[in-house]
Design a protein that fits this description.
Elements lengths: L8 E2 L8 E7 L3 H9 L7 E6 L6 E5 L2 E5 L1 H4 L2 E3 L1
Antiparallel strand pairs: 1-6, 2-3, 2-6, 3-4, 4-5
């Protein structure tokens, strides 16, 4: 079944273990490039494995695991 874009929200509001798609990154070019090199980019899918208020998020991107600080994750929008 095809996923519909019903609501866009910050990555920090994603449910744990739910697969979401990145639709926008309100980051400067350098930050976006660093995340792109780690596999996080617009159109890509990601799962939040761990999160807490004002703490870094642990993300799964394919078989990789990366940490993203909370402030950065608030600027990454998904559905």
């Amino acid at each position: 079944m095809k996923k519909t874009m019903s609501r866009i929200f910050p990555l920090t509001e994603s449910n744990l273990m739910a697969e979401v798609t990145v639709v926008r990154m309100k980051l400067d070019a350098n930050e976006q490039e660093k995340l792109f090199q780690l596999g996080l980019h617009q159109g890509g899918t990601v799962r939040v494995l761990q999160r807490a208020l004002n703490e870094p998020l642990l993300l799964a991107i394919g078989d990789a695991r990366i940490g993203v600080n909370y402030e950065t994750a608030q600027k990454i929008f998904v559905y």
